[in-house]
User: Which sequence fits this backbone?
């Protein structure tokens, strides 16, 4: 889970079938601000789309139908997107997306292909600082239109659609001060759509009655709580007349205004909604009593979701709150695991994540659990270091010159952290049995002192004092393997300055012979060993940071290697792992790139060559990647350590 402000890793535990007992976390782009749900690939499973304000993207996560989601796919938007909706904007029976771009005064429309992918954005101008939008047919031509709240100049823009996903600015109407949310419905029962706008600085909601041709009549104003930030409309008291509910950020309340059926509303009733800023509110039946309830996100450092159960007469029971990530900005309610019970998903601004709370069907939800790690992890590997048949973790903590060893339980819990000293600024770690005692050892690259530390393991998860091996200047990475087929593990080390890889033959006792050197690309950052051409000899694959490519050196089986062949990656690759990711019995590669916050997957052809890369988004400044079967489905998954956001991103394999 991404956790920019907390310097930790959040682990969310699996049941062994891809489902999780507690809250689930999925990486998005930076600053997720708002999310919607819909079936974007027509598989009858709920998907999610999130706008990421800080890096101007949309993250689309396709659902598996079991409350888990695939890896995000990102699409560019305008600057600082703030709100997103989904609807069929071009009448092709496929869901599209529309986004408000706060900083460049536009909306972006991304037409869906029906397979979970979207076309490039089309932009349309609005007034200043659009913050919210809704999609309905305001002029009764059977084509969806858009209404946009513009917070800087206190207006609502109406953009009429032509049924092809294209829009033109039709009219602009003044609102109160700082309109931040709006909803469209027929408030006066004349079969024409009206608008209700939440004006944050005026502490009120204004109603614009529609004429049915895309124009609106003089507005009426109704008082709310302090700083209304979100408005919704439903019939909460079952009198067939639409009511309004507003989330009020300053006094932590929701205001309920019961409708009279003529476009006017009664005096509000306020309900306490948590003890932090009420940012967003939605309505759904969370306890299966056929009465509408309220779900509120409370924005703050810790973050809450607050539930108010409805009585069916327009009143609500006392609020019950659930913890989320830091700064939740938006929430959706849907059946995410196909159990006919409503679940919740929140976008958490400070944590850069989505968290899913699974509903019991009685108005209560499972809450998440969080486990901290060490500070600034630079590299991570997984293996069974204490011979209990459970996966353990070793993390190199570059800032305090240590290794953190987490011994895992059978249920994926890591209860205890053990600390072992390394050299100065450990930035890379590899494991292997370097002294042939059938116990895993560690090899650590210490960047500031040009050494490799060998820590011999005792088979119980403990390690002896380091054995120091001096290497060339600026070592960056190390990998172990038997490169000369003598049944003794060797080491291959990459160096930033010389742009080479050195091979050290092992003596079988934890010591190593002099090096042999091979050219790589510029600034080799990471190295792995794998048989990529099915000749039963280990090859070397190197991520070259400055060249933005991957070097492949085919092994001859005698400890020597052929000259490199290179393959393009995204900008600045820093870590790489191999595995059969598409189940074709050929070795593939996965690479993370720190400048672009991305992961590339290159499918192998089985002869030492690779296909063009596929790109996935990660957290901030990814530093290391590992592979393992995290959900016990016999498929290799991926986990990425993000140095800039101090987190781990987990990517579950969804290949057939």
Assistant:
């Amino acid at each position: 889970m991404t956790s920019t402000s907390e310097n930790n890793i959040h682990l969310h535990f699996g049941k062994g079938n891809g489902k999780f007992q507690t809250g689930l976390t999925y990486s998005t782009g930076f600053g997720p601000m708002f999310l919607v749900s819909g079936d974007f690939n027509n598989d009858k499973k709920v998907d999610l789309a999130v706008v990421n304000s800080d890096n101007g993207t949309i993250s689309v996560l396709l659902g598996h139908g079991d409350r888990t989601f695939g890896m995000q796919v990102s699409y560019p938007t305008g600057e600082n997107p703030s709100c997103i909706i989904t609807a069929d904007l071009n009448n092709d029976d496929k869901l599209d997306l529309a986004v408000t771009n706060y900083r460049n005064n536009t909306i972006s429309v991304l037409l869906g292909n029906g397979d979970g992918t979207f076309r490039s954005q089309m932009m349309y101008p609005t007034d200043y600082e659009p913050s919210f939008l809704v999609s309905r047919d305001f002029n009764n031509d059977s084509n969806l239109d858009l209404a946009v709240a513009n917070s800087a100049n206190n207006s609502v823009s109406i953009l009429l659609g032509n049924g092809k996903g294209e829009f033109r600015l039709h009219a602009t109407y003044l609102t109160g001060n700082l309109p931040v949310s709006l909803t469209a419905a027929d408030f006066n029962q004349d079969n024409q759509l009206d608008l209700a706008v939440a004006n944050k600085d005026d502490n009120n909601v204004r109603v614009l009655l529609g004429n049915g041709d895309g124009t609106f009549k003089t507005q009426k104003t109704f008082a709310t709580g302090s700083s209304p930030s979100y408005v919704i409309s439903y019939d909460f008291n079952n009198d067939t007349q639409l009511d309004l509910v507003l989330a009020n950020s300053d006094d932590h309340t929701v205001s309920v205004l019961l409708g009279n059926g003529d476009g006017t509303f009664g005096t509000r009733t306020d309900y306490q909604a948590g003890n932090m800023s009420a940012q967003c509110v939605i309505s759904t039946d969370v306890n299966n009593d056929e009465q509408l309830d309220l779900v509120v996100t409370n924005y703050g450092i810790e973050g809450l979701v607050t539930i108010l159960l409805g009585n069916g007469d327009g009143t609500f029971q006392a609020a019950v709150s659930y913890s989320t990530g830091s700064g939740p900005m938006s929430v959706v309610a849907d059946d995410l695991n196909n159990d006919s019970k409503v679940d919740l998903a929140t976008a958490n601004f400070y944590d850069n994540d989505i968290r899913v709370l699974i509903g019991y069907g009685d108005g209560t939800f499972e809450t998440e659990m969080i486990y901290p790690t060490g500070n600034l992890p630079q590299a991570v590997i997984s293996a069974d270091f204490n011979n209990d048949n459970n996966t353990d973790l070793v993390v190199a903590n570059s800032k305090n010159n240590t290794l953190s060893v987490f011994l895992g339980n059978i249920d994926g819990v890591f209860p205890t952290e053990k600390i072992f000293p390394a050299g100065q600024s450990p930035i890379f770690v590899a494991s292997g049995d370097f002294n042939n005692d059938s116990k895993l050892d560690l090899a650590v690259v210490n960047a500031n002192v040009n050494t490799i530390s060998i820590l011999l393991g005792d088979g119980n998860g403990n390690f002896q004092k380091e054995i120091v091996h001096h290497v060339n200047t600026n070592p960056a990475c190390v990998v172990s393997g038997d490169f000369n087929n003598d049944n003794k593990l060797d080491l291959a080390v990459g160096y930033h300055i010389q742009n080479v890889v050195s091979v050290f033959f092992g003596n079988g006792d934890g010591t190593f012979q002099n090096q042999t050197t091979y050219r790589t690309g510029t600034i080799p950052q990471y190295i792995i060993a794998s048989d990529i051409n099915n000749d039963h000899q280990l090859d070397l694959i190197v991520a070259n940071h400055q060249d933005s490519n991957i070097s492949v050196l085919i092994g001859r089986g005698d400890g020597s290697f052929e000259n490199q062949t290179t393959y393009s990656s995204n900008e600045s690759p820093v870590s790489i792992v191999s595995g059969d990711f598409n189940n074709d019995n050929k070795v593939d590669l996965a690479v993370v790139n720190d400048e672009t916050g991305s992961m590339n997957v290159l499918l192998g052809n089985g002869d030492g060559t690779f296909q063009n890369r596929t790109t996935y988004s990660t957290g901030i400044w990814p530093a290391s990647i590992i592979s393992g079967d995290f959900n016990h489905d016999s498929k290799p998954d991926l986990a990425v350590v993000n140095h800039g956001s101090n987190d781990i991103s987990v990517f579950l394999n969804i290949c057939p």
